[in-house]
């Protein structure tokens, strides 16, 4: 994607084939359900990615002085003041781990598999998952509620699945999409959320406001993730080449767009104060902008 900039043109995204969403609120594991609270916390492995795995997500500690990187095998790599509470690397998985989210106090985290399975560590509680349930499309992202007592999962067709105290405010499930959904972000009060598609389209639900999108705009590379400004007044989109696009009161602090990278960008996370962000690459590389500190990477 182009180097990135604050875009002020509002564009509405049009759409392509999808399936309905559902609201599940079971707090216990259903028979055959993938995902559960994992109590044991094995000794942390190397910060480097294991051979054959790729990084999938970066989650930030509450004070912004550290972060976790999750990989497809369920491995968790810690940096700065991020604590290690266990991983799913030694567990049988029905699908690769594709996302993670930390608890509000940073003393735990959830890992999410593409089959919708949730794995909880530290003080993260298990409130249910789509693991073991039929899905029209794979799960691609998650977000936690502000109090950490619930979470949402989003599938590539835009279907939203809510657990614990997470409320269902609508979804793109069952509506046509031009490109698949690749991620989501929740509003600060947990009363709404955004979905982002690979063409940059943004879909807002609940009290989430629409501030613009890259939908309908030319991109050099597909959008892979988004992050919301802590106050909820804007958001960023990031493309696989590291291009950053900012909307609302989200500020542009730089990007890797236009830079030759040895890995594709797969995710991003905002500094808790909103003054910067991190990008994470498929090989575990971390790119910090604004007041985001670089505490290391999982690149071998």
Annotation keywords:
300 residues; mainly beta; four-stranded mixed β-sheet; disordered N terminus
In a few lines, what is going on in this structure?
The chain has 300 residues and is an all-beta fold. The protein has strands at residues 4-6, 35-37, 55-60, 66-71, 76-80, 97-102, 108-113, 118-122, 139-144, 150-155, 160-164, 181-186, 192-197, 202-206, 223-228, 234-239, 244-248, 265-270, 276-281, 286-290.
Helices and strands, with pairings:
Layout: E1 4-6, E2 35-37, E3 55-60, E4 66-71, E5 76-80, E6 97-102, E7 108-113, E8 118-122, E9 139-144, E10 150-155, E11 160-164, E12 181-186, E13 192-197, E14 202-206, E15 223-228, E16 234-239, E17 244-248, E18 265-270, E19 276-281, E20 286-290
Parallel strand pairs: 1-17, 2-8
Antiparallel strand pairs: 3-4, 4-5, 6-7, 7-8, 9-10, 10-11, 12-13, 13-14, 15-16, 16-17, 18-19, 19-20
Explain what you see.
The protein is an all-beta fold. The chain is built from no helices and 20 strands. The protein has strands at 4-6, 35-37, 55-60, 66-71, 76-80, 97-102, 108-113, 118-122, 139-144, 150-155, 160-164, 181-186, 192-197, 202-206, 223-228, 234-239, 244-248, 265-270, 276-281, 286-290. A four-stranded mixed beta sheet has the order 1-17-16-15, with no helix packed on it. Strands 2-8-7-6 form a four-stranded mixed beta sheet, with no helix packed on it. It starts with a strand and ends in a 10-residue tail after the last strand. The relative contact order is 0.18. The model is unreliable at 1-34 and 36-46 (pLDDT under 50).
């Amino acid at each position: 994607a182009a180097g990135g900039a604050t875009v002020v043109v509002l564009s509405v995204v049009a759409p392509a084939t999808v399936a309905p969403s559902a609201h599940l609120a079971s707090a216990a594991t259903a028979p055959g359900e993938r995902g559960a609270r994992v109590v044991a916390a094995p000794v942390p492995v190397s910060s480097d990615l294991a051979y054959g795995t790729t990084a999938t997500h970066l989650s930030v500690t509450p004070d912004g002085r550290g972060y976790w990187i999750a990989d497809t095998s369920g491995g968790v790599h810690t940096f700065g003041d991020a604590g290690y509470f266990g991983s799913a690397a030694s567990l049988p998985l029905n699908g690769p781990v594709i996302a993670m989210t930390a608890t509000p106090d940073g003393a735990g985290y959830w890992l999410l598999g593409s089959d919708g399975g949730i794995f909880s560590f530290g003080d993260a509680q298990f409130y249910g998952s789509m693991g073991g349930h039929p899905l029209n499309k794979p799960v691609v992202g998650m977000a936690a509620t502000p109090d950490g007592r619930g979470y949402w999962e989003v599938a590539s067709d835009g279907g939203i699945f809510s657990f614990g105290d997470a409320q269902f405010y609508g979804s793109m499930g069952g509506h046509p999409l031009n490109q698949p959904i690749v991620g989501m972000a929740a509003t600060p009060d947990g009363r709404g959320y955004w979905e982002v598609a690979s063409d940059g389209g943004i879909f807002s639900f609940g009290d989430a406001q629409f501030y613009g999108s890259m939908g309908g705009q030319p991109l050099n590379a597909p959008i892979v993730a988004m992050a919301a400004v802590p106050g909820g007044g804007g958001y960023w989109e990031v493309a696989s080449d590291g291009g950053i696009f900012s909307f609302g009161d989200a500020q542009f602090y730089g990007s890797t767009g236009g830079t030759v990278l040895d890995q594709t960008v797969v995710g991003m996370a905002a500094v808790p104060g909103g003054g910067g962000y991190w990008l994470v690459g498929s090989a575990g590389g971390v790119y910090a902008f604004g007041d985001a500190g670089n505490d290391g990477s999982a690149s071998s």
